[in-house]
Amino acid sequence: MLKKLKLSLLLLCLPFAAMAADFKAGEHYDVLKIEKSKTSQVTEFFSFYCPHCFKFEAVAKAMEKSLPAGTEFVKNHVNFLGGLAPEVQSNLSYAYIIAKQHNKGEQVADQMFDSIHIKRAPLNNIKDVKALLAVNGIDNDTFDKDIASMPVIAAEKAMQDKQNKFSQMGALTGVPTFIVNDKYKININTIKSQEQLDELVAFLLQQ
């Protein structure tokens, strides 16, 4: 009976073991010369101004839903895209952080992507950003108060610090970029399907 049980458990493990063996460091992912994060997390470096990030948003959302319990999905907005001043790009970082504080992060993020890439309203002016948040119940007074608060300032600084850290080590050269546990950068160009991406993330989370 014990032998049958061990065999059954082994057979259950085989599909994942076979799948994991197909993922290769240096091909599907890169191992970064940095300590692994203490908590389980997947970081997406992205920009609302990036058309590739806009097209990839549905994939990122599906991946987030597939993550095991206890794994945090971190959306880290960057401000280094060409053509726009970093301050302009950071305005959307602040807006996203403030929206999250009011439990409206996802809906505001969707509307910012839609405004820039569908409606062609680029949100380059802070007045337009504030107007978008006002539509979502975050009025100008609340926005002005929040953007000057220490938690929001610290959260935006943390985004920039993380962006700069991975940029300096050569791991962040464009967006979208996905990094698992601060240690493994996914080479997204090698991924052929949503299923493969989800499986690779699950594999890397166990390393």
Q: What is the structure about, briefly put?
A:
This protein is of the alpha+beta class. The chain has eight helices and five strands.
Q: What report would you give on this structure?
A:
Keywords: Disulfide bond, Periplasm, Redox-active center, Signal. It is found in: Periplasm. It comes from Pseudoalteromonas rhizosphaerae. By secondary structure, the protein is an alpha+beta fold. Helix content is 55%, strand content 11%. It is built from 8 helices and 5 strands, in the order αββαβαααααββα. Helix 2 (51-66) packs across helix 8 and helix 3 (86-101) runs antiparallel to helix 4. The radius of gyration is 19 Å and the shape is globular. The two termini are 32 Å apart. The model is unreliable at 1-18 (pLDDT under 50).
